[in-house]
Amino acid sequence: MRRRLARELAVQSLYQLEMNEVTSVDAIAHVVEEAQTEDEGQLTRERDQIATPAVQELVEGTVAHKRQIDGLLSDYLKGWQMDRLSRVDRQILRLAAYEMVFRDDVPPKVVVNEAIEMAKHFGTDESGKFVNGVLGKMIKDLDTLRKPESAPEA
Q1: CA of 96: how far to CAs of 1, 34, 37, 118, 131, in Å?
Q2: Cβ atoms 124, 118 nearer than 8 A
Q3: What is the architecture of the domain spanning 1-146?
Q4: What is the pLDDT of residues 57-99, one digit of tens each?
Q5: What do you get for the CA distance between the two ends of the chain, in Å?
Q6: Angle at alpha carbon of residue 101, lines to 51 and 121, rounded to 5°
Q7: CB count, 10 Å around CB of 150?
Q8: What region holds the NusB/RsmB/TIM44 domain (predicted)?
Q9: For a tag on the chain, would you pick the N or C end, based on fewer CB atoms within 10 A?
Q10: Rg (CA), the chain
Q11: What are the boundaries of each domain within the chain?
């Protein structure tokens, strides 16, 4: 399963979590089932078999660090508040922040580029630029953000 597909399904799952107040397991199951049956974005091409554990890892990691991620993002949202963002942009930013700050298996520039592409696809005309602006500022401070005091919550 490509990471892009896992990210897209993770963002959709995070959106489901926030909209419907369901568990992460239920949100992921719903999104994966929908992707497998509707093939809206040609997600179920033969070479793109959907691996729920990859989606689950992204969703649960983001949820586990949500409070810390929101705090970080708030510092980079000049003139914006987290609760005033579109739900789609908010989930994309949360997932990207999780991958950049709490994981080291993906280059940060790749995370930013993937987030921009998802914002263009799922968000408004301005979402790509907005996500790029926020994550572009965050990536400059990444070494500081990854220090032990920024480590995952216990």
Answers
A1: 18, 23, 27, 10, 9
A2: no
A3: Orthogonal Bundle (1.10)
A4: 999 999 999 999 999 999 999 888 888 899 999 999 999 999 9
A5: 30
A6: 55
A7: 15
A8: 6-140
A9: C
A10: 15
A11: 1-146
d(CA 115, CA 110): 8
Instruction: For residues 13 and 28, give the distance between their C-alpha atoms in angstroms, rounded to a whole number.
Output: 5
Residue with tokens 């739900």: 87
Q: Which residue has the tokens 């080291």?
A: 104
**CA distance to 52, 146, 150, per residue, from 29 (Å):** 8, 31, 31
Look up residue 12 and give its amino acid: Q
Structure tokens at 81: 């508040």
User: Following CA atoms 52, 57, 60, 64 in sequence, which dihedral angle do they give, to the nearest 10 degrees?
Assistant: 180
Structure token pair of residue 62: 């983001």
Q: Could you please report the per-residue DSSP string of 81-109?
A: -GGGS-HHHHHHHHHHHHHHHH--SS-HH
Confidence of residue 47 (pLDDT cuts 50, 70, 90): very low
Could you tell me where the DSSP H helices lie in 1-126?
3-20, 24-38, 52-64, 66-76, 87-102, 108-122
